[in-house]
Protein 1
Amino acid sequence: MESIAFLGAGNMAAAMVEGLIANGAYAPGRILCLGGGGSTAQALSVRTGIRLASSLDDLLADAGTLVVAFKPQHLAKADPRLAELTAGRLVLSVLAGKTLASLEAAFPRARNRVRSMPNTPGQIGAGLTGWCAASPLSEADRALLGQLFGALGGSLELPESQIDGFTAICGSGPAYVFEFAAALRDGAVGLGFDPATARHLAVETLLGASRLLARRDVDPEVLRNQVTSPNGVTAAGLARMASRDFRGMVRETVEAARSRARELSA
Ligand SMILES: NC(=O)c1ccc[n+]([C@@H]2O[C@H](COP(=O)([O-])OP(=O)(O)OC[C@H]3O[C@@H](n4cnc5c(N)ncnc54)[C@H](OP(=O)(O)O)[C@@H]3O)[C@@H](O)[C@H]2O)c1
């Protein structure tokens, strides 16, 4: 079986490598990595047992797939030899905002190019990755991608035109949830709870509500209504959210994020 090469060995590459090994999809000996001038690649190799490549040629000598996992701005400065070295290989990019057209320019001879947008819950296998491929995928490449994305959690194939929207909802979404968690925690402190207890209350409430929502096959409004008796405690809280147009604010939030994603990927 061919090896998988990671160019860039930071947080995202580490999450994928650790997931691949934990799932049993790939033995560490079949995964290689290479970084830039720093120490992340060596650290990842020492921590997981994957091989640290000595050069780009070494990285790609036996690899059928290259996962490009450096920062998006590194693509323009990447070694031009990558165009030849990736000939016949599958290239999977996790670079935010880098379009299939820009991947084609950098890796013109790859057998296929895939643009993906993972999110941070992938670090614990609870992510959702949106992706699109430049050309129709062979069964073998589709299965390979399933393993790679499976290392981070779930995945969803989308037309490229929807990747910016996916980024605004699922890429940035965890930050909105963390902001809401922080607001709930601050609200608890305002009601007199000590900071540690306030954090506990906010986290457990979000976790429990999210699990319940994921397990029940109903709209969130159904579960919301189950908590809300007419003129009761929750109704008082929700009325205040509605009076400040909470939904309108969230709509504007995701629209602003998508506009920025479009600007950055233009
Ligand atoms: N983190 C996320 O949740 C997330 C979500 C979606 C998408 N992404 C995408 O994932 C990518 C990586 O993000 P990250 O958070 O993992 O970044 P990171 O932790 O900063 O890691 C960046 C990696 O790139 C390496 N690198 C730097 N210059 C390089 C070069 N010229 N050639 C090869 N490798 C080079 C670095 O190696 P040295 O240590 O040697 O410098 C390091 O291993 C980004 O493109 C980002 O858009 C991340």
Note: Strands lie at 3-7, 31-34, 51-52, 63-68, 90-93, 112-117, 127-133, 153-157.
Protein 2
Amino acid sequence: MNIWWIQRNIRIVDNRTLSAALHENNGLVPVFILNQKILENQHSISCKDRFLIPVLKSFDKELRLLGSKLIVRVGNPVEEIIKLAEECGANKIFTDADSHPDSIRIYQQLGEKIELIFGEHPCVFPFSAVSQKNGKPYQVFTPFSRAWKALPVNLDLQPSLKHLPPVPDLFSVPLPFLSSQDDFPSKESEAARRLKSFIEGPIYAYKESRNFLDQEGSSFLSPYFRWGLLSKRQALNAAFEAKQNTNDVVSKNNCESWIDEIIWNDFFQSILHFFPQVLHGAFRTSMQDIAWSDSAINLQAWKDGLTGYPVVDAGMRQLQNTGWMHNRARMITSSFLVKHLLINWQEGERWFFDLLIDGDPALNNGNWQWAAGTGTDAVPYFRIFNPILQGKKYDSHGKYIRKWIPELSDVPVRFIHTPWLMSSLDQKNCHVKIGSDYPLPIVDHGMAKIRALSVLSRR
Ligand SMILES: Cc1cc2nc3c(=O)[nH]c(=O)nc-3n(C[C@H](O)[C@H](O)[C@H](O)COP(=O)(O)OP(=O)(O)OC[C@H]3O[C@@H](n4cnc5c(N)ncnc54)[C@H](O)[C@@H]3O)c2cc1C
């Protein structure tokens, strides 16, 4: 008997861990080890876990259609896997490799007790394949991407499966009842549907339209990548095909631009793998000791979407309400926390990770370090997003702002990015009192810019 320990690739289609396990022809027990905290805190469950639980349920259904089923256990993965192996007489564990240092520690401990075989990896290529000539890992995206693109991509998908070996009678922890979110249905077929509809149209305009806050220009696949409801190979296959299917150079560039984002995902996974210390501090050690502000009031205002800068607040409220945030808004809000409020990026990283439905340690950390200027390809310290101009450029009519900030729904376009400039009469006419219904800016943009330049340039 073999165990298929599912971690981040919760899918049946194109799963190399599953294929490797089936190759042995030795019986298979699929297991997912759930974190105890999820079951303990069912009342304050995060969006990520609210996405995961229905995914596991729907995955169990899919497995049953093929003659198998999912065993769920709760607790310490090493203890639970060993216990399960004893119960079913398994002597090999097939699993996915992860880049997080905690996972790597678990693999070491488990590997001392039982044979551990890895099928899927967090990146398209094994970590060592995309490295410099001297074997060292890349620390900057462009050469990483160049080396990635020079490798022969083996995008052969795994053959589809008609049945799976039956699972012996084993205890499985019942999962709590949680329905999936309307905007992110928790099932493998939804990932395939999204990919298909993105590839058939939006990918050809992706580079530009992904930036606009009031448009649906991106794929909305991030939670599905996070839990491996589709493989990067499936996504890349589809994107390469889309690129081939057009003769238009601009459309081809748009496809390429989406492929680049998948490579960014690989890049940050690789950074976490080779430099796990990034989870505890700045990638650039010279940026370690910045004199951050400890204003709990400003941090709370940022979290609550009450900074007085509409585009920042709309992003933060989208996050609070849905567990997802538009990429442009992630860039604007992260920059605002670090540069306008001078608050340590790690506070923002924690808040995003707790709330994001696609919260991924590698991607979240990489992007926060980018925003803070402490990371690999970081934004230079002197590039400070102006939240007013960003709003005007990427949400010119204020549609995104009005959606997430109902207090401002009647504010006319000319004031939607600067509501504090309205006269008392203007405010009365659009049913909002700035300073009480909606806050005045908690920091002045001009002053904040000078302060950030002065503090951050000392590094
Ligand atoms: C401060 C900050 C924190 C972030 N935290 C996360 C996170 O925890 N999890 C997460 O998945 N993304 C994170 N991102 C990256 C990005 O915002 C999301 O991946 C994207 O918005 C998801 O939407 P989509 O699936 O429609 O992406 P698309 O634009 O369609 O891109 C396709 C895929 O490419 C990858 N990708 C896209 N942008 C990036 C990027 N900047 N870095 C790395 N990979 C990328 C993702 O896997 C994404 O699903 C963060 C960005 C910022 C600025």
Note: Residues 249-274 form the longest helix (26 residues).
